[in-house]
Amino acid sequence: MTLIKDRKEKIGLHVMKNENWKKPVYETNGLNVWYGTSHALKNIDLTINEKEVTAIIGPSGCGKSTYLKTLNRMVETARDVHISGNVTFMGNAILGKAMPVELLRSKVGMVFQKPNPFPKSIYENVAFGPRIHGIRNKVMLDVIVEDSLRKAALWDEVKDRLHKSAYGLSGGQQQRLCIARCLAIDPEVILMDEPTSALDPVSTHKVEELIATIKNDVTIAIVTHNMQQASRISDRTAFFLNGEIVECDRTSTLFSTPEDSRTNDYINGRFG
Amino acid sequence: MDNNLLIKTNRRIVKDSIMKWLFGTASFLLIVLIAFLFYGIGADGVGRLNLSLFTNFGSRFPEQAGLKAALVGTLSLMAVVIPVSMFIGICSAIYLEEYAVKNKWTAFIEMNISNLAGVPSVVFGLLGLTVFSRALFLGNSILAAGLTMSVLILPIIIVASQEAIRSVPDNLREASYGMGATKWQTITQVIMPSSIGSILTGSILSFSRAIGETAPLIVLGIPVIIQFLPTGPLSTFTALPMQIYDWAKRPQPEFADVASAGIIVLLVILVTMNAFAIYFRNKAMKKLQN
């Protein structure tokens, strides 16, 4: 107990010291996640601030994806998951029966590792979210689709083939379409689970540029195994190891002067 | 060159060509059999394929015998079987794949459904006789036979639909749930559009089976010669395979020709349905691929 409290204070102090002007979107306190008997996340305390890019790094199996999926409760789709602790989204508790997942996810978009557009047209892919949230008006949908595709820097590439299948796009374009699809529901947060790991360097660069522009409008939490990417695009970085947070700091600080020797070893490629 | 190696190699090559012939003959045999069947039926039946075949009721005179009642009966039967079996079948498959928790019980249920697909049709006939004809007092009506046939093909439809639903990639489900869609929205907007082609294919193939089944109809006591068209779902009727079965067992050789003509009609219906099934499958494949 004292240990959790200590860490809480440490991170709390930290927030006050550096980012007291930022509003927290997600606050996680003492989060534990078990898959069956394996303890995937141990007493996680982490704050994700509004309109910032928070990168979550760490070696495979450290729980970084599990943490991200807890934020929109996709983690519960796995079998035999047990969660304890407290996660709030814009001040509201989200775990358990506190909030319907559908409501939470209508404010929190997610981009996955592998681009997963629907086998529908480009237009229908982007219009999917607004449609399921009840927007039927054709003019309104047209506006949302164009706006989202423009924000995702895809409009010029696809405006002549909006009604063609999304499967005709390249992998990178598909991933940006998935980001556009998220933007169409006007989310507060977009969670990205290694969004560029299936892409070539040029497409990766485009997605990174896109993240840099949309972070003015939305908060982004991104899991990445690519430390260069984390240092390029994020404002803050959390380093996970064996289900615990080792360190969380401003990205520039964490990469230049890490406090923990394990962070130092990881970012310098000594393990993982 | 090593003589021993040469002999060994030759032996392997000979073995290979023997196998080629064996496999070739096996498939050729099947084609020959089908050709014989088609030729036999065609030669006997084509002569009787005239308008009177479709406008006459059954008769004890072969030259007057027609399959009007049987054709209308079969179509009426399908009018019960198609909606009932598709509705229950697809709903069960959706429940088992999307809603049900995967545990021992659902595994047990699924195993039993697969096993039911292999139960002989006469057993389903007895089930229909006990439940629909006797307990529910439906007698030998279209409804009783239609429900029996529906139960008979339900396992096939459920298994085919489950496979179709399972083949929709999980990342599409994730994408949909990740946008805040409910289960029902995900099913109607994502899973069904991607799987309906395969579901229809499986269903249509099972309807062909229902059209051709005779045993359950015999158990239910469906009459053969009737001189009227069914008036409603509770009316009695006869069906194509029953009619063909009756013609085939009659002693007069002329009835063999009528039976052949009936078989041609049945085959045409079956081939048409299978063509539809293939069309839907190709359409679904194209949709998923491009």
From TrEMBL, chain A:
EC number: 3.6.3.27
Protein's organism: Filibacter tadaridae
GO cellular component, one term: membrane
Residues of the signal peptide: none
A single GO molecular function term of this UniProt record: ATP hydrolysis activity
Gene: pstB3
Transmembrane is among the record's keywords: no
The protein, known as: Phosphate import ATP-binding protein PstB 3
Domain (ABC transporter): residue spans on this chain: 25-267
InterPro entries cross-referenced by the UniProt entry: AAA+_ATPase, ABC_transporter-like_ATP-bd, ABC_transporter-like_CS, P-loop_NTPase, PstB-like
Record's keyword annotation contains 4Fe-4S: no
GO biological process: phosphate ion transmembrane transport
This protein's UniProt keywords: ATP-binding, Hydrolase, Nucleotide-binding, Transport
Matches recorded under SUPFAM superfamilies: P-loop containing nucleoside triphosphate hydrolases
From TrEMBL, chain B:
Keyword Lipoprotein: no
Family matches, as InterPro entries: MetI-like, MetI-like_sf, Phosphate_PstA
Residues of the ABC transmembrane type-1 domain: 71-277
Coiled-coil segments: none
Recorded GO CC terms: plasma membrane
Membrane topology according to the record: Multi-pass membrane protein
Transmembrane domains' residue ranges: 21-41, 69-96, 116-136, 142-160, 217-238, 258-280
A Pfam entry, by short name: BPD_transp_1
PROSITE patterns: ABC_TM1
GO terms of biological process kind: phosphate ion transmembrane transport
Signal peptide: none
Entry keyword set: Cell membrane, Membrane, Transmembrane, Transmembrane helix, Transport
Subcellular location: Cell membrane
Gene Ontology molecular function: phosphate transmembrane transporter activity
Record-stated family: Belongs to the binding-protein-dependent transport system permease family. CysTW subfamily.
UniProt protein name: Phosphate transport system permease protein PstA
Species in which this protein is naturally found: Filibacter tadaridae
